[in-house]
Amino acid sequence: MNIAIPGQPSPVQGLAPVAKPTRGQISIKNVTKIYDPEGVNVMAVDDCSMEIAAGEVCMIVGPSGCGKTTLLNAIAGFHSITSGEIRLDGELLCGPGKPKADQGADRIVVFQHGALFPWKTLAENVAYGPMVQGKLSKKDALEKAHFKLAEAGLGDFGGKYPGEVSSGMARRAEIVRALINDPAVLLLDEPYRAMDALTKSIMHESLLEVYDRTKVTIFFITHDLDEAIFLGDKVYVVTTRPCRLKKTVEVKLPRPRNFEMLSSEEFRVLVSEINEAVHEEAIKAFQSGEREMA
Amino acid sequence: MATTTVTTNEVPQRRVAPTGLALAWHRFKKSLRSPTPYLTVFGIFLWFFTYWLLCEGLQLPRFVKIPGPVTIISEWFSTNPSQGISIFTPEYYHHIAVSCRRIAIAFFLATAIGVPLGLLMGWSRAFHDYTFPILETLRPIPILAWVPLAILMFQGYETPVIFLATLASLFVTTLNTMLGVQSIDEAYFRAAGCLGSSKWDVFKHVVVPGALPYIFTGLQISIGVAWFSLVAAEMVSGDYGLGYLILSSYVNGVTVPMVIGMLTLGFVGWFTSVLVRMIGDRLMQWHVRALALQGR
Amino acid sequence: MQKAVEMSRSEGHAAGADLQSRVLLEGVSKSYGEEWERQDVIVDLTAEITPGELTVIVGPSGCGKTTLVNLIAGFETPDKGRILLNGEPVTGPGHDRMVVFQETALIPWQTTYENVVFGPKLRGDLSGKELQDEAERLLNKVGLREFMHKYPLQLSGGMQRRAELARALINQPKLMIMDEPFRGLDAMSRGLMQEFFLRLFEENRRTNLFVTSEIDEAIFLADRLILLANRPSFVRKVIDVKLPRPRHYSMLSSPEAYAYKREAMAILHEEAMKNFKSTATSKDFIDAYSKRAD
Amino acid sequence: MAKVLGNSEFWRGLFALIMFVLLWEIGSRWKEMFGYSLPYVGLLPAPSEVAVAWTKVLPKWGYWESWYMSFKRVLAGFLAAMLIGIPFGLMLAVNKYFRDIFFPPFEVLRPIPPLAWVPASLIFWPTNEMSIAFVTFLGAFFTIVINVIGGARSIDVRYLRAAQSMGASQWDLFSKIILPGTLPSIFTGAAVGMGITWEVVLAAEMISGGGTQGSGGLGFFIWNSYMGGSLPQIVVGMISIGIAGYLSSSLIRIIGARFMPWRRLF
Q1: For residue A110, what is the enclosing H or E element?
Q2: Least CA distance to C72: which residue of chain D?
Q3: Same domain (yes/no): B198, B268
Q4: Which pTM was predicted?
Q5: Which CATH number does the domain housing residue C264 bear?
Q6: What CATH number corresponds to the domain at position B100?
Q7: Structural domain harbouring B53
Q8: 3-state class (DSSP) for residue C30
Q9: Structure confidence by residue, pLDDT tens digits, B16-68
Q10: pLDDT tens sequence across C182-232
Q11: Mutation test of the interface with chain A: which of B186, B195, B291, choosing the one with the most A Cβ atoms within 10 A?
């Protein structure tokens, strides 16, 4: 998969001058996860292997309920794995003898429905990480939080509660809350699922802007192909339950990206190439879903 | 629109939003255009009139035993009440004060025990498994059934009454607090874990504030239940208090103080529950503001 | 799903005259709120829903699309202007216009079958055997025959949407109004639902108004595309989509579709950004953006 | 069943209950064992004494008659509250004028605890039985009405609109949408109301002194045991009422599940 784009600078030249990222390289080797509730084996992830380079945006596309989230939960340390191993920057997160990774501020999750604490203001939410880790005093943490929020264009909303702002703003604040801890990896679990396409495209631009600034490794789960191509360096299409790798596509759209690329020719070619595989999985997931309901 | 004069049928694009009293006045004026206030006044008048007609106007056979509205009001506000209780007699306030003191102690005790207990039950699986069955076994026994036992176990007038009111609110508070903790979305615990919280941080920043809305719903129910049991306990055993006032008036054959006691009880009960709600709203600005935006 | 699609195709093309109705919106305006915070939702909107065509209205969320649906369906009345259905002004709700609601509004205490026969049974249009046959035919068509005695909450999201379609179709409406019907479904089942819906429409070309905020969905379905401006909304642009019918999902990544997409996206992105930019620091921002229904 | 036995929650609960009874036994027999009595707990009758007292009353007709009397009163008050409360609540929810007229007086009377009505109703009604029925009725009535109003007003407006556009008349809207849509809250209200009804019946039986022996009931059974100074029998009465209350709320839950098949999912 390599598209030559005439008249466009090559992706490497197009990058903003940010130091080459050194942290956040993830290697996932032969990971399998079997749930065993009441003696019925359910295989969620089957022999998944992927290599994610430091500072790469890795998009996992698959139908809902296919087991992608299990993979993310294993990296974050919410779930154990049955076999295989996951390493972050060479260090073992989980693997033989250590089924469950420790939770830590080097891998931060942004959740599907958002998990800003509704009882804290946006600034308090952002300040939470540095404060509980004892890195900063409460006062300093709040100050830094206000600064970071302002940087993300949310300066006026630091004193608002999450219930008072739109879901789009809440999601942006959640990403600020994650990045203030300077994590090696950002794990996003379908964060824009409930939004309409237009709000989503604005969210995408804001995420891309953040990424261009920080070059943090992003592990992003979605079922929206457009989203995957627009944001990602690499798109992994996975099968429906159990989650297996079906197709890997490298996306060589230049960065920084903007919404106009969504309707560009290169984009269209990429979509038409991956569409088939995704559509196939959608139908499979649909049929198995229908069978289960009956 | 070049003209500066504003004609009556031309509403300016955006006026300054009125606040406070002006807003209330605007709402009031607007409501006068709908039938609601008239119907409400009519409803209350109708109720009073029916009450008066039955008891005092027509003096129907059984109704005549019940004091009518005119009798009650003239007695309630009389400087020299013929049946002993009015807003000018210190005894009236003594009854209120005694009941309120009992409620305050019982409610404080129940909250101080119930909230930590509920938080623990919601947070720790093992603690829940060991304590919840006992709670569930004791809960179906009506509080009133404890009365004789309470009188025998705790001598005197005061302690049994407070014990019963405490017990009643304790069940409600504990249960609601526990449900509150259980209702917290798993994602918040995970997010806290991701951000590097210790167990104590999770407790302080997630468990307690997350359970707060349920806790206050519970407290509001619990204060109602406390009044309910207090009245019963005071009726059965007591020397003072509104419940005692009602029953002793009945025993002594004076009906007006009985009704005054009922109405006062209703008002004080309502007032305490409003108080609890106000404290809750104070503590949970995030909850209140989010609900307000949703238009609720 | 595939099976159901095949079935509906074999039903043949029964085009009746009552399917060809025309809706005219003439200078429609609607606003809400107390006089000092009056918000114009729709201002002087003039548009036509042409007979036998699938007209799609696209706009950013919160732009007043649902208000427009409520006006056409007759749940609310416009402050100014008028709405004509085949020359007759719309005065209230009626079974000549069927609305398929956002997120589905199947009545939870009735089984799928009871939901479908609800309308005709109320009016006594069809009776006994006839009604049962018709309901079963439609349920078969949407692939829900075996689920007809289940309650809506026992069905998956996609099934609920199809049941709702059947409930609307049995009333033989002159106009179908779809108010973001596939919102809340994941991108993959959404794609399948769109295809399914197109088959149903192409079968007899009943005049249809489809409201959405997804550009892809709009282009894929539409004969005519009406782009709405953000609050207050009026018609920004009308685009005739000349993709051939019957349509196939792969057409979405065709160059023609992308040309339409580019055109529509430029306008809509601008409208969506209005929420963010014009008022980025003022209090209006919160009013306009955070108050809207997410 | 195998699932329950293999469950640690079940065993922990059982262990806790056994420990609870054991500690209670030891606490109340402290004096026999150690020569001095524990405060408060020492005054309680031991579980074993309660069990013995229970086996003594079980074959007696009077004990079962108490059950019968209490159940009869609860049922009478409760049914009356349902029969009057549900239509009244629905009227309040559906008709704006009706609500404007009748809701304010209702709200004024609601905060008065039901037991405060006992003396007044003893004066008003000619027989004890009628006054107990009246107070139990009041106890459940307010709860049910409030629940019905809340339930009817929280029905999703889209259901009403969908039905309206399919040509539903006012009556159709009421009978096909509002009534079934309110059922869940009606049953919630009924469950809470049932709990209050038991409390009130008990209190009324205790306060009115039960009159003659025949008009007793479980509340009187307890009061009688108290007057007779039989502590174990008080506890027997308490447990009996606990069981009775539990049985009646289970009954409501079962009936609720029957009436609302759509809530019995998966």
Answers
A1: strand A107-110
A2: D165
A3: yes
A4: 0.81
A5: 3.40.50.300
A6: 1.10.3720.10
A7: 25-66
A8: strand
A9: 666 667 777 877 887 788 888 888 888 888 988 888 888 888 878 888 888 88
A10: 887 877 788 888 888 888 888 888 888 999 888 888 888 888 899 888 778
A11: B195
